[in-house]
Amino acid sequence: MNASPPPHPKPAPQTIGRGDPLFLQITAAFFLGGFATFSLLYSVQPLLPAFAREFDLSPAGASLAVSIATMAMAPTLILAGALSEFLGRKGLMASAVAAASAATLAASFSSDWTMLLILRALTGVGLAGLPAVAMAYLADEIDPKALGLAMGLYIAGSTLGGMAGRLEVSVIADISSWRVAMIAVGLQGLVGALVFGLAVPRERERAQAPPRLRELMSTLRGHLVEPGLRLLFAEGFCVMGAFVCSYNYIGFRLARAPFSLSQTTIGFVFVLYLLGAASSAIMGDLAGRIGRRRVLWIAAGIGVVGVAATLPDNLYAIVAGIALITWSFFGAHSIASSWVGLRAASGRAQAAALYLFFYYLGSSTAGSAGGWFYQAWGWSGVAALVGALFAAALLMALRLSKTPPPRHLQPS
After folding, report:
1. Is the pTM of this model over 0.70?
2. Closest to 327 measured CA to CA, from 300, 356, 309, 308
């Protein structure tokens, strides 16, 4: 009796290369998805003075509109990344942006501050679904030779979304009201979610069983005890906290004497976000050429100089200082976030999720704490807090330069 021939091995699924028509479709969709996500998350930042007036709040109280969203987003990132393996990445990402857009629309009709904060928290929970999954989706679906371009376009969309959302609501709020501004951002997000859902193909493979909590916790603990990763998580906390704190309260300073700038004029400060795209590319390339250990501390040090420049009551010095803070943050973030994936021997998705957890935790805690400093000591108090965060980031970067590489990166 003849034995049946062995089954042919299942061919490896094909990734999407730069010449594939789907490549342009996917990268355009992720550009739009990143744009919508960070527009929804940070568009309320220029509206903090308007919230303070409408709801009779202190600067610290108004800052909760930003902080509570990032605070809710931080732990959800870890959960969303794990669940996406089982529930499906595409569906989770599109649903996340749509849910956050709906929450933003609802927030525009809030009659009291508590309801607005609840809806901002729900916005943060929803938005966690895209950044937690986007990098894993692109890494699995896009050809490695084209992955750098795809990731670059996603990050560019995120950067421009963060800038455009802030600028858009500044202009609309000046012409009409903050409620109309939030409606515009919410509708824009819904359009982005719809286009994203139609343009992005479903992932090729999906896990057949839900993630095991014990394995997930074991992986997370392993990352938290690795000395280099701990420093990188703290680095993300400090530079993001310093960055968000600066932008949260610079609007309050510029709206008051001796500057007394309009909402629209203050909104143009956020055009400095464009420096982020340049800083990410230039500092990232420099780190690749001469080493992350030699560049990260330079990026953090630029932030210290930027804070000092904002202290005089001179508009040109303040704008230059915010520009240096922006350059410092994006440069340090691009270096630290890429370093996380290299130091993690396994469970890179979980390592990235932990980095983002501390990153957004820094945004929420320092972003709110800055309000207490502003209320007590004005901008000089905020500058002291931001300067301390950048100084801590500088010390940790110097410590990282002397931390040995993990075992899997050491020569045999």
Report:
1. yes
2. 300
φ, ψ for residue 278, nearest 5 deg: -70, -45
Q: Structure tokens of 172?
A: 């609309």
Q: Residue 17, by phi and psi: left (phi above 0), alpha (psi -120 to 50) or beta? A: beta
Q: How far is CA 151 from CA 46, 52, 138, 194, 352, in A?
A: 28, 38, 7, 21, 14
What dihedral do alpha carbons 104, 69, 379, 239 form, nearest 10°? -130
Nearest to 51 by CA among 71, 70, 37, 65: 65
Contacts of 83 (CB under 8 A, 6+ apart): 92, 210, 211
**In whole angstroms, what is the distance from residue 252 CA to residue 374 CA?**
9
**294-313 pLDDT per residue, tens:** 999 999 999 999 999 999 99
As a whole number of angstroms, the distance between CA 372 and CA 179 comes to: 26
DSSP bridge partners of 142: 16
